[in-house]
Every structure is written in structure tokens, then in C-alpha cells.
Design a protein that fits this description.
The complex is a heterodimer of chains A (253) and B (471).
Chain A lengths: L1 H16 L9 H13 L3 E11 L4 E11 L3 E8 L7 E5 L2 E6 L4 E4 L16 H5 L8 E11 L2 E10 L9 E7 L5 E7 L5 E13 L2 E11 L6 E11 L10 H6 L2
Antiparallel strand pairs in A: 1-2, 1-13, 2-3, 3-4, 4-5, 5-6, 7-8, 8-9, 9-10, 10-11, 11-12, 12-13
Chain B lengths: L1 H12 L1 H41 L2 E5 L12 E2 L2 H8 L4 E16 L2 E10 L1 H4 L12 E2 L2 H9 L5 H6 L7 E2 L2 H7 L7 H12 L13 E4 H7 L6 E7 L5 E12 L4 H4 L2 E5 H7 L5 E2 L1 E6 L4 H12 L6 E5 H4 L1 H39 L1 H9 L4 H36 L2 E2 L2 H9 L5 E2 L6 H26 L3 H6 L1
Classes of the chains: A alpha+beta (253), B alpha+beta (471).
Chain lengths: 253, 471
């Protein structure tokens, strides 16, 4: 197991060192590389702050996030004090929410996947990453564009027929040099733009260059947005699958 | 005067005919009055129920709250504004509330509920909630004990299974349901009350604890001392979740509300929804609740209200009930119209018969020299006397019944009551006080008599004496 991990890891490292030119990469490979860079090839542990901006108020929630690939994810709210201790768990296709004030474990039905998470513009699906930008879409390079002085691929991703995704198609702008998601436009099944995501403040975190401020702007709501700030992130720490358990939801710190 | 004397004597020449005619008028007046009184009384009762258990006569709200009832559309409570409002001559009290939606759960059972944060003391100005506390309940243990008691007659015992688990806020309804006569009550009721007495607690400001509706508590299978779990969305998208001990159970007259209400002390509720010192509504209790007085009060206070708030009247807030009642009112008027039509033809029929019977008599008196005009005026007087007789008798009997009914509304019991409750109504038919509708019924019936009078008058004036005598 371990040798295999190291093998894959070195391979990936090699892939990023050896400069592969864009023309040789397929659209799907680009998305995979960018996705893995942001979410970690195997695991990631991060500390984030999410600011919900509304026309008359705003509110910040801080949380810790553990993920292992696409299968497992655990999110623990750490601030504000009111919501502290709430956790969200994803194991394969199932999701739960633990609320310590009422000592209740609530299973989130699939119908709630497209609803806002903690009152933000992020959906439960975004946070728990049920769907995959790599496997659930058919990718196609539409061209190159410059964004904030960086040359980007413009990739159109159309949802596969049988994929359980809430978007009809997406358009993503990915930095050619560092494989960063700099901009994404998400459209519904009828082709209407629903939201725009912008990756900003590109910084080096745990040895990787990633956007640390993500702005999420819903299209039809004036004056609304959600700002996600990555405060700390580390990639590919060893996390056992047993970490993602209902018991651990209640005691994880 | 002579005419009147003649008319009066004419009436009693054929007693039966007079009585039949006035009886049909009597029934018209009687039914119309009682029916109208019951209708108006029921509307009033219905309005009072929604007003007093829920909306109040007037409310101050955030301007967007009514269209979108979310906690974000609440407003900060301002004691200065409260003092200003209390300064108005018609406003006697302000009742602060914080209401929202939540999911209530006990074990695997969950239900969407209306969470109402109230100041239990102030709330009493409006919804009389303290008197809605359940005092007696026919639990299976209580029924068992009653069945074993020899003092209780069998006819009461046979009724018991029908009311298993029913809750009562007063002894009156309990007595009615069990079909206990007033004269037996002093002996039987204390015994039954003792068996089914229900220990109920109170909620107080600052103390976590809830009151739940009787029907809701039965659905969730929760009793006093149990814990109810509430989860919802709080102010500015925070999580609102809490566990509370059930301190008491209330039974609201509106089954729809009884099914989903959870009362919390105001401050505890504000804490749950992360909305300290915020209200979703400030109800205003008024001294004079007539539509006109309320309209005037609204006008006076509207200048005090800040820009992001508004005042709403009960009619606006209970649009559904109001239009339901209006539709029912129209239906009632159609029923009345049909009643009038039937009775108008009845009256007309008797008048027709009367005219035919007296054709020869009319011919005779005109032949011996009576002027047709004089005959016509005697006829008119006769009809008016008959009409008056019927109207007065009808009004008199209806008045007696309505006056009695004002203090003793019709309360249904047993299966009938359950049926009413299933439809969302309180099983009660109230009468309405003697009012302008009285005059209207009298005028309409009077007009009916006058129209019927047209026939004999036409006959008299168009009469050919020779033909009339030949009959």
C-alpha cells in the first residue's frame, strides 16, 4: 500500500516537474490536475473561514475540513460559539449532520444536496463534494484567455447524462502554468448562468500554489456573495478511513 | 277608526284563515331571524377565535414579514415606541411575540411546527392562553378508575371509550361530552374530575421550557416532563437548535393551530433563534374593537411607526378566514332568499284564496253603496293587521330564543363535535345579539305582505259588481 502511494506520488510529482505542454494534455487531464492540486491527491486537512455577505448583513463561520479523495469528508464548525461543534460527515453516498446542542445525528437526504450550506451560497453538494468535476462531466477545451495576467485554458464541461449533478454545464478557466481554478461559471440545465466563482489571492500553502480566496457570486441575487478563505491547508497527510465515522463526528476537535 | 274596527272584525269572522296567514308570516320572521342570528354569531365567534388565539386586532411588524415570514424579517424591539403606542387612547396593552417555523421531534417522529415566543404574562391580554391549559384528560387509567367506581352511572361509562385521551380545559365540556345532566353534576363531576385531573405546569420568562398543543403532543407522543427537540433556521442563517422540557399542554380552540403550536418564553425563543431583543410582531390589544375604532387607531399610530415597520389590521392578516366567512355569508343570504320566496308564495296563496272566497261579499258591499276606496282601505288594514300579528309573534319568539342563546350557545358533543373539529371548526354555534339585521328581516317580511296585498286591491278596483254577485 505504502509503496504504491509513494509510487503514485512520485509519478505525479514527476508529471508536474516535467513540463508537459498544453497540447499534449486532454481537457479531462487538465481538470483532474487542477482538482487534485486544490483538493489533494489523497487527502487534505484545511482550516477555512466563510463569510456570508447579504445586502443588509454579513456573518463569518470558521470550520475545519478533512477530506480523503472523493469518498470521505468531515467538516467541523469551530466558530462562532453558537454553531461550534456541529459537524458534517460524508461517506460515499451518504451524508450526516451532527448537532451537539440537541445531541442529534441527522441524515441529509439527497434532496437537500442543492440547498445552501449553513445559510451560505455554497450548497451541501459543494461542501461535501458529492459530485466530481472529473468523472461526472465531459470536458472540452474551448480556447485560451488571459485572466489577471495569467494565461488560462477555457474548458467547457457538460454534465454526463447519468451523473447526479446539479449543474447542466460549467465553464472553467484554468491557469496554464500552475493549474489553478481562476474562474468558473456554473449553469443550470436550461443553460442559465447561476453562479460565478473566482479564485483570488494566489499563495503558496503547504508547498503548493493555490488560490486562497474564493468568491462565490450567485447570478440572480443582488448584493449577495460568499467568500471562502483558506487559512491553512495541508495535503496528503495520512488519514485512516475509520476517521470518517459517526462516532468521530461527535468527538473530533 | 271605523275602518280599523271593521277590519279587525273582518279578521275574526274567519279565524282559521287569519291564523293560517299570520302563521306563515310568523314562520318566515322566526326562521329568518334565528338563522341570521346563528350565522352572524358564528362568524363573530370564528373571528374572535382567530383574533384572540392568534393574530390580535392589530400588529406592528417588519414591513416584509407578512410576505416572507422568516426570522430575518424581524425588527428590534424599541421600548420608546412601545411607550408611544401605549399612549394612544385605544391601546391598552402591547403583546410582544417572536414566531417562526421549526421541526419538532421526539425519537423517530418529526413534525413541522409553529414556534411562538411569548411573554406568558402579557400574552394573556390577547390570547387568554392561561385558560387554554389542559386541566383534565380522560387517560386510559382515568377511564379504568371511573369504570370501577360504583357511583358513576352506566350510561356515562359507555360513553368513556369514545373520548379516550380527550383533553379538557374546563369542566363544562367534559360534562357535556359525558352527557351528565346539570342536576347530577354536583355529585358526579367532582368524582370524575378527581380521576382525570391533569397536572399541568407553566412557562416563565427566563426559564427554558415549552407549552405544546394537545394534538401535537399526542402526535409526537410527548407528555409533561418529556423533552422536545426543535431545529430550524435562526436569525442571519444561524442554526437554531434546542432541547426543551415540556412544562405544559394547551388545547387551542382552533384544531389547525392545536396541531402545530409550540409556545416558548419570549427570551428563550429569541435565544434559540439567535435574535436577542428582536420581535416578529408586536400585537396591540385594544379597548374598542369595532372596525371604525380600529381604523382610527391605525391612522393615529401610523405616524409613530418607523419606516421599516408597518401596522396590520386583523382583517388583512386573516384574509382566508374573512373571505371564507364572506362566502358563507353570501350562501346564507341565498338560503334566506329561498326561504323568503317560499314564504312569499305561501302568503300570496292564502291571500289569493281569501280574495276568491270573498268575491261575492265584496260585490255585495259595493252594491249596497260602499265605496271601492273604502273597501280597499279596509282590506289594506286587514292585511297589515295580519302581517303585524305574524311579525310580532315571530319576532317575539325569536327574541326569546336568541336572548337565551346569547348566554347558552349551542355546543355539540360526541360524534357531532368530532366531525366539526375534523373540519377545523370549534363545535359551537353562537347567536348574535339583536342588531340591525332584525329590522331588515322585519322590513322584508312587511314588504312581502304589501306586495301580496296588490292582488286583492286590483281585484276590488277591477270588480264588476254584477259579475261578482253572480258567483
Amino acid at each position: 500500500m505504502k509503496t504504491k502511494t509513494i509510487f503514485i506520488f512520485t509519478l505525479l510529482l514527476a508529471a508536474s516537474i516535467v513540463r508537459v505542454s498544453g497540447q499534449d494534455l486532454s481537457a479531462k487531464d487538465i481538470i483532474r490536475k487542477a482538482d487534485e492540486k486544490f483538493n489533494g491527491e489523497k487527502t487534505s486537512i484545511s482550516l477555512m473561514a466563510m463569510t456570508i455577505v447579504r445586502p443588509t448583513w454579513e456573518r463569518t463561520i470558521e470550520f475545519k475540513n478533512w477530506t480523503s479523495g472523493r469518498e470521505y469528508a468531515l467538516t467541523l464548525i469551530t466558530a462562532p460559539a453558537r454553531d461550534k461543534g456541529q459537524s458534517f460527515l460524508k461517506r460515499q453516498n451518504e451524508m450526516w449532520n451532527w448537532n451537539p446542542t440537541i445531541s442529534r445525528l441527522i441524515k441529509l437526504p439527497p434532496s437537500m444536496m442543492s440547498q445552501g450550506w449553513m445559510g451560505s451560497d455554497y450548497t451541501n453538494d459543494d461542501i461535501l463534494k458529492e459530485s466530481s468535476v472529473v468523472n461526472d462531466y465531459i470536458h472540452e477545451i474551448e480556447g485560451e484567455e488571459e485572466l489577471d495576467g495569467r494565461i488560462c485554458w477555457k474548458i467547457k464541461m457538460v454534465a454526463k447524462e447519468d451523473a447526479d449533478v446539479i449543474w447542466g454545464h460549467q465553464v472553467r478557466w484554468i491557469d496554464k502554468k500552475d493549474f489553478l481554478f481562476l474562474k468558473s461559471e456554473l449553469y443550470d440545465e436550461d443553460g442559465y448562468l447561476i453562479r460565478t466563482e473566482l479564485g483570488k489571492e494566489i499563495k503558496s500553502m503547504d508547498g503548493r500554489l493555490i488560490p486562497t480566496h474564493i468568491e462565490l457570486i450567485p447570478e440572480e441575487e443582488e448584493g449577495q456573495m460568499t467568500l471562502l478563505e483558506i487559512k491553512e491547508i495541508s495535503f496528503n497527510d495520512p488519514i485512516k478511513d475509520s476517521f470518517y465515522s459517526q462516532q468521530n463526528m461527535k468527538r473530533v476537535r | 277608526m271605523n275602518n280599523l274596527k271593521l277590519a279587525w272584525r273582518n279578521l275574526w269572522r274567519n279565524r282559521r284563515r287569519t291564523l293560517i296567514t299570520s302563521a306563515s308570516i310568523f314562520f318566515a320572521v322566526f326562521f329568518a331571524l334565528v338563522m341570521r342570528s346563528l350565522q352572524l354569531g358564528s362568524y363573530d365567534h370564528m373571528y374572535r377565535n382567530v383574533i384572540e388565539s392568534y393574530s390580535g386586532y392589530m400588529q406592528v411588524q417588519h414591513k416584509d414579514f407578512w410576505d416572507e415570514k422568516i426570522v430575518d424579517n424581524s425588527f428590534a424591539f424599541d421600548p420608546v415606541l412601545e411607550q408611544q403606542l401605549l399612549g394612544d387612547e385605544n391601546i391598552v396593552a402591547t403583546i410582544p411575540r417572536f414566531e417562526s417555523f421549526a421541526l419538532a421531534s421526539n425519537g423517530p417522529k418529526t413534525k413541522g411546527v409553529l414556534v411562538m415566543g411569548v411573554d406568558p404574562v402579557k400574552e394573556n391580554h390577547l390570547s387568554d392562553v392561561l385558560n387554554k391549559k389542559v386541566r383534565y384528560r380522560l387517560t386510559s387509567e382515568a377511564i379504568e378508575k371511573i369504570e370501577r367506581d360504583d357511583r358513576i352511572p352506566d350510561k356515562v361509562k359507555t360513553l368513556l371509550p369514545l373520548f379516550e385521551n380527550s383533553a379538557y380545559t374546563n369542566t363544562g365540556r367534559l360534562q357535556l361530552d359525558l352527557d351528565i345532566q346539570d342536576k347530577e353534576a354536583p355529585v358526579l363531576m367532582p368524582v370524575i374530575e378527581e380521576y382525570c385531573y391533569f397536572e399541568n405546569g407553566s412557562i416563565r420568562m427566563g426559564e427554558p421550557g415549552v407549552w405544546v398543543g394537545d394534538k401535537l403532543s399526542q402526535y409526537l407522543e410527548l407528555g409533561i416532563g418529556d423533552t422536545i427537540v426543535l431545529i430550524g433556521q435562526g436569525y442571519h442563517a444561524t442554526t437554531a437548535a434546542g432541547k426543551y422540557e415540556i412544562k405544559g399542554i394547551v388545547k387551542l380552540p382552533l384544531p389547525d393551530l392545536d396541531n402545530k403550536i409550540v409556545y416558548l418564553p419570549l427570551d428563550i425563543c429569541q435565544g434559540l433563534y439567535n435574535a436577542d431583543n428582536r420581535l416578529t410582531s408586536l400585537s396591540l390589544a385594544v379597548d374598542d374593537n369595532q372596525d371604525k375604532a380600529i381604523g382610527e387607531t391605525m391612522e393615529r399610530i401610523s405616524s409613530m411607526i418607523p419606516e421599516n415597520q408597518r401596522v396590520m389590521e386583523w382583517k388583512e392578516m386573516n384574509e382566508v378566514t374573512v373571505s371564507q366567512m364572506e362566502a358563507d355569508n353570501k350562501g346564507g343570504m341565498i338560503m334566506l332568499g329561498i326561504l323568503y320566496l317560499v314564504i312569499a308564495f305561501g302568503v300570496f296563496g292564502t291571500v289569493l284564496m281569501l280574495t276568491a272566497e270573498r268575491k261575492r261579499e265584496f260585490g255585495m258591499v259595493v252594491a249596497i253603496g260602499m265605496q271601492k276606496r273604502k273597501l280597499a282601505s279596509i282590506m289594506t288594514l286587514e292585511m297589515m293587521l295580519v302581517g303585524l300579528l305574524g311579525i310580532l309573534a315571530g319576532a317575539l319568539v325569536a327574541t326569546v330564543i336568541i336572548l337565551y342563546g346569547l348566554d347558552h350557545p349551542l355546543v355539540f358533543k360526541g360524534e357531532m363535535a368530532k366531525m366539526f373539529e375534523d373540519y377545523g371548526f370549534e363545535p359551537k354555534l353562537a347567536f348574535w345579539k339583536i342588531d340591525t339585521y332584525y329590522i331588515w328581516q322585519l322590513v322584508i317580511v312587511g314588504l312581502m305582505v304589501l306586495i301580496a296585498l296588490g292582488y286583492p286591491l286590483r281585484k276590488i278596483f277591477g270588480m264588476k259588481v254584477v259579475n261578482a254577485l253572480r258567483v
